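I am still getting used to backbone structure tokens and would like to learn alongside you. Label the sequence line and the structure token line clearly, so we can match residues to local backbone shapes. Would you write everything just below, so we can both look at the same thing?
***
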Amino acid sequence: MNEPNALAWDAPSLADAYRGRFRVGAAVNTWNLDPASEACAAILRQFDILTLENESKPMYVQPEEGHFVFDKLDRFAAFGEAHGIDLRGHTLVWHGQVPMWFFEGEGGAPASKDRLLDRMRTHISTVVSRYRGKIATWDVLNEVLRDEGGLRESQWYKIAGRDYIPEAFLAAHEADPDARLLINDYNLESSEAKADTMISLVEELRGEGIPLGGVGLQMHLSLFTDLDLLRKNVHKIADLRKIDPALRLEATELDISCYRFGDTAEDIDWTPEIEADFRAKYTEIFRVLCALADEGALDTVVFWGLSDAVSWLNGFPRRHRNYPLLIGRGWRVKPAFYDVLALAGNKEA
């Protein structure tokens, strides 16, 4: 029953509705996994795949060289196993939220290429092997591309050049040969140059025999996203399946900001017009995702956060009250939730 403003744990299940088409998930934190919490009730009702939002990033897992902290990841893995929920690992190599010791050598000099790559391999091998058979998908590399196309000149790139990219996949594959290994990035939907770079990079890596299993489309969108460009870019990326039909896309961090980038407003007046725009945007995005799934190109859609109240977009790129998800404040589902739910049973969507 499509009850207006139903609580997330009483509303119909998105995961159940889309089962057989694609998995529906969310980014969570371990404090959301308390079985007595409202967050946990929402998770168990709505989602069948989860990503840790921050707690599995390198700065938390290996804050000091050789000192691994696995309590949060262990809890995450145990929760997935206990409830039969698939898990995604996020992320092994990133230019953000990585401790600087990775890049430091003796006496304050930069680390050598060999030392950096050895540290990277050790981190990946230690983490992935520990959760072999428990975490089935890893965002091995996160945000390695520049917005205008080309490779990001991160510390990884400045020290190791392009070589860190294939080496990361090889280390992860050796640690868990059965895991799906993704390269994950943002603005692939809105930058044609970035999408083209991603396509070329994947083609190169697969040509070199690198065990890359797919591309993560972060899909941090807004009410002002150009849908025609989005469709063009994601379908171009989906054509990578011509290389290998087993390659998959995943929508890894989906949300729809209600602000233009750079807007300095602290809140918005949620008018009927904005409500209509929000519903229409989510409907069209899910039409695209359904089409990709029906082509066999996509099998996972993950929202970046559980509800509007805890979305990262309340603090980025500045503090303001945002409304980017299908579950609003107070754990109430929105009208757009039911629009997306209705598409699940429509194979012509």
